[in-house]
Design a protein that fits this description.
Radius of gyration: 32 Å
Strand content: 15-25%
Number of helices: 20
Oligomer: single chain
Shape: globular
Structural class: alpha+beta
Number of strands: 20
RNA sequence: GAUUCGUUAGCUCAGCUGGUAGAGCACAUCCCUUUUAAGGAUGGGGUCCUGGGUUCGAACCCCAGACGAAUCACCA
């Protein structure tokens, strides 16, 4: 059922076609300017051609004002009847513009630049072209002279499901996504300046490796094998290092079949990179250099407002080992503790544990509970317990630790990096430990990837690798608290659509075509629902519907309704 | 997964103690040749998320469900 406004727009569409205008023309429309160009450089009487969406219209007799919104901004247009229609025939203004065009229509405008009496740069329209008719009314937020928005389009569900509307109507949304693009470009520029190679690796993987997470499963028909959407691309990028590239990186969509919240979406973007002959100390320097570069290039400053805190991305960032961090925040030195002592410490600190947790997991819990959220300013946390990191090289000074760092910003993980494990024998035994975890029921334990082991057996140079969450980085640099604000189309439950009546079902009952839609619209959406109702009630409801919608058909007779029930 | 909140016109939202469904913008008609959030006048527009229940009577109370948001838990 169309709303009144939608019906009116469809009627206007018909009138436009009857008048001889194609509402959806095929031809290229050549523009000379963007709105922004005209506003930036005022050239009185300059002839311009622009295209965009009509966002405001104010008709005042023979003159009208409007606002045209294009990809770069908005500009006011002025229409005078006798300028648009210099001849006798005034229908282009009186009918087409005033009656049949609507807010939201895409128009091409030819005219001359001028300033109104109030001094606003505008276009005096000489010719108007309909480029696409809009059949659904847009929300109409208004900004007042103090910059306060009234009637903002701000229902999150509508905004995410109809992002196209959100983008048309909410300027700041577009800005966020433009900035996202700039951040990614800037990172790519930085990596490419180092002469690393941008690569692409499989998204469909038969063994989902490189991280601890539950995968999405799919099936390949021709090969008749299960395939997984990648949870990471780490193992493939390392194979390329084996193959002799010194530096590779990939901007990768990864997929994890886990819970969603304001920092997690089932598909998300990571940039992973691997560089041969480096270690995690080198990678820390590299990471802070890269982030500083991006901030300066995109924002022009290293001071970033994140949720009201000023966070400085000026290098160097603070570095602290996990054990020292725990010492700093709890006053307890856990470095020499046994598993039992750690468990007691957890109890004392009120950190929840369970029996399956090993030494490493216990340490990680303490850190997660007591330390992590304190790191607002960028901080490298280094030297994680070995159980947590099956793909990471053991620490050169302490075999219980690994050469790993995570970069914490605003209490959240932004990046994760290792001195990569390149000892195939050690790697195999770490994978086997994961298999044992899986057998114990850990559904996030890693799969064993024998081909990856084989690759390491051919020899991988010492390498450092790093992954950085692009969505989170964008959230930080755009000061957005929710991942949904930095993804065009965040994951949502599928929308339910009213697909209309199943006609055959009604025809089976000998119901005439003309009454099917009214029956459906009256709430009898299936045969079963209709047959459960009383014929007299249906009869009344249908004639009520006929009257209300002013249907041009005779009222239905009770006998006819009753005949459906026999 | 738990708890809380929300769902009323195209959009943003009111709607008291259960008693005929409201406003602003948008839309339509008429008037108006430079408006600045929205010139003036008049008018049309509703599956009050869905399904049950209570009641003489439900947008409102009760039960179940759908969708969304926040917090927490789980998870990187």
């Amino acid at each position: 059922m169309l709303s009144e406004q939608e019906q009116i727009r469809r009627e206007s569409l018909q009138k436009i076609i009857a008048y001889g205008i194609n509402p959806y023309p095929a031809e290229e429309f050549k523009t000379t300017h963007y709105s922004l160009d005209i506003l930036k450089k005022y050239n009185e009487d300059e002839k311009v051609i622009i295209a965009g969406r009509l966002m405001r219209r104010k008709i005042q007799g023979k003159a009208s004002f409007g606002t045209l919104q294009d990809a770069k901004g908005r500009i006011q247009i002025y229409l005078n009847r006798d300028v648009i229609c210099p001849d006798e025939d005034k229908s282009m203004y009186n009918d087409v513009f005033k009656k049949w065009l609507d807010l939201g229509d895409i128009l091409g405008i030819e005219g001359k630049v001028f300033k109104t009496m109030v001094g606003e740069i505008s276009i005096n329209v000489e010719k108007i072209h309909l480029l696409s008719k809009s059949l659904k009314p847009l929300p109409q937020p208004k900004k007042d002279s103090e910059g306060v928005t009234h009637d903002a389009f701000n229902d999150p569900e509508l905004r995410y499901r109809r992002r196209y509307v959100d983008l048309v109507v909410n300027d700041h949304v577009k800005e966020t996504f433009i900035k996202r693009s700039k951040i990614i470009n800037s990172m790519r520029k930085f990596l490419s300046q180092k002469e690393y190679i941008e690569v692409e690796t499989p998204i469909l993987q038969s063994i989902p490796g490189g991280a601890a997470a539950r995968p999405f499963v799919t099936h390949h028909n021709a090969l008749d094998v299960p395939l997984y959407l990648r949870i990471a691309n780490e193992l493939y990028l390392k194979r390329l290092i084996v193959g002799g590239f010194d530096g590779v990186y990939e901007f990768a969509k990864d997929f994890r079949n886990e819970g969603m919240d304001k920092t997690h979406n089932p598909e998300f973007t990571q940039m992973e990179m691997y560089v041969a002959y480096k270690d995690y100390h080198w990678m820390m320097n590299f990471t802070e250099e890269m982030l500083e570069f991006i901030c300066l290039e995109v924002l022009g400053t290293t001071n970033v407002n994140i949720g009201g805190e000023i966070v400085s991305f000026k290098k160097p960032f603070k570095r602290i080992s996990m054990i020292d961090s725990i010492k700093e925040h709890t006053g307890i030195d856990i470095s020499k503790m046994s598993e039992l002592e750690l468990r007691k410490t957890c109890e004392k600190l009120d950190v929840a544990t369970d029996a399956s947790m090993g030494k490493g997991k216990l340490i990680d819990e303490i850190f997660g509970e007591k330390c992590e959220s304190n790191y607002i300013q960028p901080t490298f946390i280094t030297d994680y317990p070995v159980e947590m990191s099956p793909l990471c090289k053991k620490h050169r000074d302490n075999p219980e630790l690994t050469e790993r760092f995570e970069l914490m910003v605003n209490g959240k993980e932004l990046a994760n990096a290792y001195s990569e494990l390149n000892d195939p024998i050690d790697q195999k035994s770490r994978f086997e430990d994961q298999v044992k975890l899986a057998e114990k029921g850990d559904d996030e334990a890693m799969f064993i990837d024998l081909d990856f082991i084989r690759a390491l057996e051919y020899g991988m140079p010492p390498t450092s690798g790093m992954g950085i969450g692009i969505d989170r980085l964008v959230m930080f640099l755009c000061n957005q608290a929710s991942i949904q604000e930095v993804l065009f189309f965040p994951q949502m439950k599928p929308e339910k659509w009213d697909t209309g009546p199943n006609k055959n079902e009604y025809l089976e009952l000998n119901i005439s075509e003309t009454w099917i839609q009214p029956i459906y619209e009256s709430g009898y959406t299936t045969k079963e629902i209709l047959l459960e109702a009383k014929p007299t009630a249906v009869h009344q409801k249908l004639n009520g519907y006929r009257k209300k919608n002013k249907l041009d058909i005779p009222p239905i007779l009770l006998e006819e309704v009753q005949s459906w029930y026999n």
